[in-house]
Specification:
By secondary structure, the chain is mainly α. The chain folds into two domains: 377 residues, Sodium/glucose cotransporter (Up-down Bundle); 98 residues, no CATH class. It has 19 helices and two strands. The protein has a two-stranded antiparallel ribbon with strand order 1-2.
Length: 548
Amino acid sequence: MALNIPGLIMMIIFYLLVLGIGIWASVKSKKMEKNTQGGQVEFSFLANRSVSLVVGVFTMTATWVGGSFIIGIAESVYDPTRGLVWALVPLQTSISFIIGGLFFAKPMRENQYISMMDPFQRKYGNKLTAVLSIIPLITDVVWIPTCLISLGATMSVVIDLSFSVCVWISTVVVILYTVLGGLYSVAYTDVIQISLVFLSLWLCVPFVLTSDVYTDISETVFNHTHHGSWLGHVESDEVWRWIDQFLLMTLGNLAIQDFHQRTLSSSSTSTARIICFIAAGVIITVGIPSVLIGAVAASTDWNCTSYGSPSPYERGQAAMVLPITLQNLTPIYISAFGIGAVAAAVMSSADSFLLSATTIFTTNIYQTIRSQASDKELQWVIRLSIVAAGLVGTSLIYLDSSIMVFWILGSDLTYSIMFPQLICVLFIRVSNGYGAAAGYAVAVVMRLLCGEPLFGLPVILHFPGCTLEDSVYVQRFPVKTFCMLSGLVSILLVSYVASLLFNKGILPERWDVFKVKSQEAPPPAEGAREADGKKAEAEHEPMLDTGC
């Protein structure tokens, strides 16, 4: 395969543009930092709570529109065993944003939290929170390779560059501007990245749809012409699995630091909520091109293309159907824009995962160990944590080349374990440290016992509908939701019993490790947020102030 010169030029221009914007944003942030009274942590992770409505919508959308989002949707629509009904990620994310705006943005923003784990720290204490923080930290790190694998594979298909070279160049660029400017650099580069994603993908769509090698997608939506129906179907014995997956992708997003980092950095509570509602509509619009490209790929006679026979699905290349379609159904200069879109999406999500993981580690783990750490010390911890998270996350690409393995692992952790924890700490008054610890243990153990074929975990608990397929047991019961509910019930039940035992004097107060009696009015966590209550929201200068 010859080197795709237009694609290579496009990538070089894009990387220089993003890096330039990131460096410019870091210089701007340093100037603003000198004129603020906020602490280093709040400034680096939340941009001094000054993100305006416009920038907020851009960065919220960009965080979720990653390489796995763009390529994964097209793959699922094209896959004859799945189809569009299994690729509802834009809709699921949209619903998630709406729920987040309605119920989560206000209590999180009004309490001036810095991370998703801060309410745990205030209610349960530092030590238990540090243990609970391990799950969201792992989630962000294991999601980094989902972005990078999609980029490396795409560039190796279209540009014919080495997979590792593409991945590590992207990693270095992302780490560099994130270290330099924190959320300021991430937010400003997100504006460029999501704009490029939107424009590039929609630029490719007309060329794909005007190709003469495919059957009209309105005719193949139900029919098997060259391929299976791109609409897909849900068999009667798969209904519960579909529901399980839908809830996982919809509710699991609410237990992710990336989401709360965007609302917490907003210039006001009302801005945080509006950002969620607008982003809910924008993300569906960004997802439509991937659906159309996947549908065209499923309707294409590949014998009539330079790709030839057999089809990508028969060659085991369904995961790369989007770049393959762009390469074979569009002019070379148009496919170069498609590559730029994937690269932009990857970097816009990867930088968010880096910053999110660093936020959790610094505020809820490191500051638990070093509660008296100075701003200068924290600044170095933040920088080193970003580099470490980037290197570890990128190194994971050599363990497995499947995007879905890492994505499912992260989603499982957030939905099954952290979502019930977040619900209880924010909205259930009776919840306490005993219940949180019990719910954590129950959810983890239950999820392990339910098994997961992708990770080679054997099925120990056989729920109704569990069948043996190719020597592997497959659960058709909604096991992820069952584990989530098991954790939720455990938190409530154990919390109630513990509260009853200590408040009624049945157990002596000296045994009360988590201080149940004092949780009616919990003090701020030790070494807590320096900026809490120091400044009113009106004092913050919004980023890209457009009057919104």
